[in-house]
Amino acid sequence: MTSAEADAPAVLRTEAITKVYRTGAVAVQALRGVSLALAEGDLVVLLGASGSGKSTLLNILGGLDRPTEGQVWFREQNLTTLSDSELTLYRRAHVGFVFQFYNLVPSLTARENVALVTEIATAPMRPEEALDRVGLGARLNHFPAELSGGEQQRVAIARAIAKRPGLLLCDEPTGALDSATGITVLEALVEVNRDLGAATVLITHNAAIQAIADRVITMADGRIAGDSRNAVPLRPAQVSW
Fold this sequence. Notes:
It contains seven helices and ten strands. The protein is an alpha/beta fold. The chain has one domain: Rossmann fold (3-Layer(aba) Sandwich). It has a six-stranded mixed β-sheet with strand order 6-7-8-3-9-10. A hairpin with a 2-residue loop joins strand 1 and strand 2 (26-39). Helix 4 (110-118) packs across helix 5, helix 5 crosses helix 6 and helix 6 runs parallel beside helix 7. The longest helix has 18 residues, at 179-196. The model is unreliable at 1-6 (pLDDT under 50).
């Protein structure tokens, strides 16, 4: 652990978490004793082959799933002791999700899609502010069908950050985009990470993207196989895909 990591407050930490999925007599161990801490403001890229446990870990961090064994803490709250309804409140108040597919409501404008979150969050930013942060201040009243793929993904990012989350989880956010559009989306994620200070975890199969991270975690066979930091993270536009 570097001195910077030691000084930064931990937003979320796990202690020896495992995850076993069972289908009849078949048991698949997706996570095998994963312990990590995420610091406030860190941008973390999570790498690993399919089946390495990346998405399972992300789902547990976000309260979408529970570990079979081990503990998960968000600040001083033990997530593994929460009821389903309490986990829902945790996700609603503290976690922003961005997925490969945008999951926008086609019949709602960009502003209205973001307002779906701001109407239930405790201390949200205005939808207009969230969209402005991702460079879509002039596209508030456009429907998803009137936006490019990259613009739709930036609406999804605006929706995720509008609640001012402590944790921003992104699962292959550029997976459906070409490289130029993907860079624009990554630039938006880097900016909101720096501006809001949310601990940000980004899953990707594109190893080149690790250059933009503060920290790079590599997973293999349900374990953390590598954990390093970039001395000087690159800007997305400097990354060669």
